Amino acid sequence: MIMKNINGATGNWLYMGFKGLDGNQVGSQIIIDSDTRRDGSAWYSVNRDELPFYCFSPDFLYKKPLILLKDERINLRYRILHLNGEMDISKLNKRFDKYQKESH
């Protein structure tokens, strides 16, 4: 499934893939650690064919702010995978599940 605009979409991981200069499929998957997830976070992306420019990132503050008191801290944990070859939902879900088992 190709999504042109995922801004504001929520989920535990996101994959963006495309054909490289050599014609082979490449892409990146960002997985959000369960300790980093919060209500109000979403994905931010830029996907402009006319440029072309493509990027995506988890956005911890996308839908609502977070107020920290003095000396409070937040820890953000993500896993970024750079992948070669064709990907599908099943493969990406398996990578997500594997990360969840390894990280906790």
Protein described:
The chain contains one helix and five strands; from the N terminus they run βββββα. The strands form two sheets. The chain has a three-stranded antiparallel beta sheet with strand order 1-2-5, covered by helices on one side. The protein has a two-stranded antiparallel ribbon with strand order 3-4. It has one domain (13-103). It has 104 residues and is α+β, with helices and mostly antiparallel strands. The relative contact order is 0.26.
DSSP helix fraction = 10-25%
**Unreliable sequence segments:** none
In whole angstroms, the N-to-C terminal distance is 30 Å
Give the percentage of residues in beta strands: 25-35%
* Rg calculated over all Cα atoms: 15 Å
Write the element-wise H/E pattern from the N-terminal end onward. Answer: EEEEEH
Query: Quick check: average pLDDT?
Result: 89
Q: Give the count of helical stretches.
A: 1
**Structural class, judged by helices and strands?**
alpha+beta
What order do the strands of the largest sheet run in, or round the barrel if closed? 1-2-5
Number of domains: 1
What's the overall geometry? globular
Task: Using brief descriptors, characterize the structure shown.
104 residues; alpha+beta; three-stranded antiparallel sheet
